[in-house]
Request: fold
Amino acid sequence: MSGIHHVTAIAGNALRNFDFYTRALGLRFVKKTVNFDDPGTYHFYYGDEAGNPGTILTFFPWENAAPGRGGVGQTQQTAFRVPARSLGYWTHRFIEKGIAHEALEKRFGESVLPFTDPDCMSLALVGIPGAENEAGWSNGDVPAEHAIRGFHGVTLLLEKAEKTSAILTDVFGFAETGREGSIIRLKADAAHGGIVDIYEAGGFLPGRQGAGSVHHIAFRAVDDADQAAMAKKLVQKHGMHPTEQKDRNYFRSVYFREPGGILFEIATDIPGFAVDEPVESLGEHLKLPAFLEKHRAEIKKVLPSLERESA
Reply:
């Protein structure tokens, strides 16, 4: 199985981010942990009921993060799948909740509803015929029949597409399926997170990371052996320099910067998010890696509360 494993982005205020993705969008809060490299900062994971690969959007919420700037060398948009007949429901919901959105548009024959989160991260809902037959998780507010069904895919804004496209096809199992103007569509065999669109935009200003921008995109590897084979191919055939494997508790990762400048990750499907708490109670407790557990008290003191103060 190929496709996107997760997308990691940068946010500002933690409570605002938590409210938007769990309440406004109705995603499940799959894991509450910290940035392993910056343990004074949360690392939030949102997804479907079990946190399956292809459904996970994660955030580093840095309270004082400066706004990012869209441009070349960045992920331009992250898109979710919803049942095609649910786009009307979501349009009305965005209006009721004052969520910034644009008019429905067509891309590659699909209906797309673009919108932004409170940090101006570019998002979209894509109406997929038949998605209503897939399992949908409900938070009690967004009905299961209209729930988000994981990722549709991402759009990359690049100076040139050729070398990045070669990696996506040769290493990650995508194949080109169409073109619309300057956009190249690549598709993998995954039901969730199976689309990468490359918008070739030579001459645009480079992007700048900050609140509202994507930090990296992770692609799926079945296990360690699959990941090692991908890393070897990156070195031998594409001249990339992936990192050594890093243990992220819920998956194991290697990273590299693709030719267009975007940080890519290869993440294993195993062991998954239920490795340290039952699926029934995912996201309810702060989970720390073993090497940080002895610092739990100090870490909890500096992390902001996710509960609203009563008036």
Summary: The chain has a mean pLDDT of 95. Helices lie at 14-24, 87-97, 162-170, 224-238, 296-302.
